[in-house]
Amino acid sequence: MTSSREDEYERSDQLLAAKGKSFYWARFFLIKKYAVRATRLYGFCRYIDDVADDSPTADGARAELARIVRDLKANTSDDPRVLDALALFHECQIDLVIPLELIAGVLSDLDRVRIDNEAHLLRYCYRVAGTVGLMMSAALDVKNPTALFHAIDLGIAMQLTNIARDVREDATMDRRYVPADSIGAVEPALLVDPTEEVKGKLARSVEHLLLLADMYYRSGNAGLPFLPFGARTAIFIAGRVYREIGLKIARNRFDVWSQRTMVPLRTKAIVSILILLSLPFRPAFWQYRSVHDARLHAHLTDLPFTHSGAA
User: Fold this and answer.
1) What is the pLDDT of residues 12-38, one digit of tens each?
2) pTM greater than 0.85 (yes/no)
3) Whether 304 contacts 262, CB under 8 Å
4) What kind of fold does domain 3-310 have according to CATH?
5) Partners of 175 in the beta sheet?
């Protein structure tokens, strides 16, 4: 690495350790080449998120994201973070349309966020997380089109888990990702300190989100055999640790308004050990034994690299 590249990697590594604890844990199961790429990719994705969330004004965030889009399309930048991302995209042959979809998803967070229905929700999840699955697949040297369908699904599953966990936190930012066709046209302010009636609706809606997430986790896991051995276990552990968030929410009767659900390091270690011990007895981990269910992408028509888009 050049000196500037090393600086960017160090910055991304620190961000991953501070803000992506589940992924930071799973990274230890990646071989070095993939660990470095995954860290650099996380750094770029986190940068895009932080521009949207930490800018003083929405207009300022839009202008900064527009500048990043211009730089990506021009294939050059004065911003070392964007320059490193461009180098990674070239190295891993990541189609530029994918990070542009990610930015489109993040830009939507700067508007009035009121998710209408499940279709709206899944398209949002594709943009902000399915795209990450696609880019991670490229970083892990995966080219099979069917593998990409499953990678999108794992990203969507993780984002649905995020949304279930962060209902209250998002509501404090005037955002409601829980679909109106599930919870009703509830304003975010009512989710910060919900009444007993709203708590009941919210618990049922969160339960539905997590059941939906499980469908996508199953599909994501079905695609594991497409991954190289130097990455397969790490991705399995990352998904399983993330799914543990949803399981913990369920054990707490879907209470997402009292506190933010966290998975402690001890639980991550136990989950990882159990996975490692069980691998010899998981045929589907070693050989692809599935067919991707196109219905999972029924609402993703026209989006890049989806099953519906490829049909």
Assistant:
1) 888 888 888 888 899 999 999 999 999
2) yes
3) no
4) Farnesyl Diphosphate Synthase (1.10.600)
5) 113
